[in-house]
Amino acid sequence: MTSILPKALVGALLLSAGLFSSATAEAGQSCGHASWYALTSITASGERMDPAKLTAAHPRLRFGTRVEVVNPKNGRSVVVRINDRGPFIKGRIIDVSKAAAHELGMVRSGVAKVCYRVVS
Fold first, then answer.
1. How does 13-46 read in b/e, with b if 16+ C-beta sit within 10 Å?
2. Stated pTM of the model
3. Looking at the predicted structure, is the pLDDT value of residue 23 above 50?
């Protein structure tokens, strides 16, 4: 009998085994630290930040790009839409809204190791 592992579990296993590398990033997967924010200011795209929406800030991806973010520690994932620029703290690869952080199970910690990939 063959068992098929969920994608999130496979990602978690690869991350914990240290098998994500720059080669993985080149294939469309990036891993690093994420934080969350819940401001209501105007974003770099010109829309008002809404902490209740599934949005994120990224330094280079086009506004409107949809990105799947996975928390390999707990296997939870969420698809967010890029609508802002950031993060502006060294070592962080993406900032997500509070709603997205809730889906990822990282509100309490504030920062979590994540992997993301562009989905559209």
1. ebbeeeebeeebeeeebbbeebbbbeeeeebebe
2. 0.76
3. no
